[in-house]
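Hello,

Our lab assistant flagged a job as stuck in the queue for most of the afternoon. It eventually completed. Since we weren't sure the result was trustworthy after the delay, we are filing this so someone can double-check. Below is the sequence as submitted and the structure that was eventually returned. Let us know if re-running is recommended.
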Amino acid sequence: MPKNQNPVTQKSGVSTNVILTIAVVVVAVLVIGGVLLFNRSGDSGGGAGGGSGTPPVAAEVLRKPDSNVLTEAPDDKVTVTEFLDYQCSSCYQYYSQMTKKIETDYAGRITFVTRNYPLEMHPLGQHAARAAEAAALQGKYKEMYHALFDNWTAWATANAEELNSDEAKATAEFEKYAQQIGLDVNRFKQDMVSPHVQAKIDRDVADGEAAGVSGTPSIFINGKKFEQGSAQNMAEVDQAFRKQLDQELAK
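-- returned structure --
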């Protein structure tokens, strides 16, 4: 021991180092654990997230009397509710590679409800939702829903890397779709900017928040959040989704 060194100070210094080391390890474990927990249970959009241990979301939260329906089963045994943003690229992927086929393949067997959940990161998400709801007021929601997604690249993207933010360009596209599906275009344009349509979208968003939605697409099967699990591509997601539908139908 060097001369004049306080043995108590030396001992307490070693103890402090040990304590600090332990504290760092504990914090690291907590942080890593928190990240893993978030990745397992957090909503990342794309149908992931939720938590199979949580109780189902109440039916009245997921569907209102005026909610838009793509296909309806007489017995309402299985209800699928999707919260979507029309400009969301993941929603477009889900539509083009899964839900469009689900709508056809399970027609008459499931009730498929769609709700609006436009995200701030998508500059035309609200605008497209208003177009869909304006079409719904003339009984043509389903047709506009398909037109928006079938022509997604025409209005939603500016180029291969950027989303479109040109509302005038999108409006021209939406009016073209309105004409193609047989809407009164003048009424369509008026309804798009009406408080009634905006209130409908706002109610959808509020219900989505109540259901725990934080990203799109978020899909519920009989109130339970669909989780893609270990699926690595859309073909596997589609397989997992159909498996859950078939299980619910078999009950």
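-- support follow-up --
The delay was a queue issue, not a problem with the job. The result is valid. Residues 1-41 form one domain. The radius of gyration is 25 Å.
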